[in-house]
Amino acid sequence: MKKVSYLLLITSLFLNLLSASSLYERLLNKETISVATEGTYPPFTYHNKEGKLTGYDVEVARELAKELGINIKFHETAWDIMLTGLKAGRFDMAANQIGLTTKKRQATFDESLPYSYSGTILLVRKNEERIKDIKDIKGLKAANTLSSIYGELALKYDAKVLAVDTMAQALLLVAQKRADLTLNNSLAILDYLNSHKNSPFKIAWESKEKKRAAFIINKNQEKALELINKAMQRLVDKGVLKRLGEQFFGKDVSKQ
Fold it and tell me: Which long-range contacts link 245-249 to residues 24+ away (Cβ below 8 Å)?
């Protein structure tokens, strides 16, 4: 068993090194790049009525690919294993409203120029009167993905986190009174409330601070990151990010 585990570890490290050493060359050679995304997190990454994968993050990734002259292949994967898969070399990049918000992430990954800025919203049932501020969640049940910045925020304020995989699952637990609250991206929550006028939820608190989201790649790929960032800057200069922001949110979300 130990021998098998050792071989798996060596294989994982080899794949990671292979990915780290070859992304720049594959970008130069106009090869296909793999991009991890959830596909279940509207309006950033989801399937439309026709079943096509779309969303703000997805379309920014497609525009980046056009600017780089490459093809991309999306790999829909759960959030909890997305960064693990990226680190192991199964993906070249992740596009899923990710920011390098912890020292652990910063030590492992690099991020491109940001393509969006958003805050955090604390959502509760309309008849919830106990929660007026983020500090009020102590001892209450928060439905969130444990490894997300929102799950980490809930734990920071001593809430009891009920682990979920998606925002939809979190909303269901709150609606069913199995959880008291959920924390999530302000753009995602506002999009949900706008498209569900009769939802049983209300906003109890919203952060003043905005966090940035960007494409995430493994560390030590400076040349690849430079190519990506130059392409991202061209998208900004051409007004592409502004156009996509207005398409999905009615405003440019690429600026603070």
Answer: 245/56, 245/116, 247/56, 247/59, 248/43, 248/55, 248/56, 248/59, 248/191, 249/43, 249/56, 249/187, 249/191
Checking 164-170 for CB contacts under 8 A at 24+ apart, the result is: 165/40, 165/78, 165/79, 165/80, 166/38, 166/40, 166/41, 166/79, 167/40, 167/41, 167/192, 168/40, 169/143, 170/143, 170/144, 170/145
What mean pLDDT is predicted for residues 195-201?
95
∠ at Cα 172 (170, 173), nearest 5°? 65
- DSSP labels, 80-134: HHHHHHHHTTS-SEEEEEE---SHHHHHHEEE-S--EEE-EEEEEETT--S-SSG
Tokens of 34: 């793999």
- List, for residues 123-172, the tens digit of each pLDDT value: 999 999 999 999 999 999 999 999 899 999 999 999 999 999 999 999 99
The boundaries of the domain holding residue 187 are: 120-206
Strand partners, 25: none
Tokens standing for residue 6: 């050792």
Name beta bridge partners: 35: 74, 93
pTM equals: 0.83
Number of domains in the chain: 2
Q: Are residues 191 and 238 in the same domain?
A: no
For residues 34 and 28, the answer to whether their CB atoms sit within 8 Å is no
**How far apart, in whole angstroms, are the C-alpha atoms of residue 83 and residue 89?**
10
CA Rg value for the chain = 19
- Residue 176 forms part of a structural domain: yes
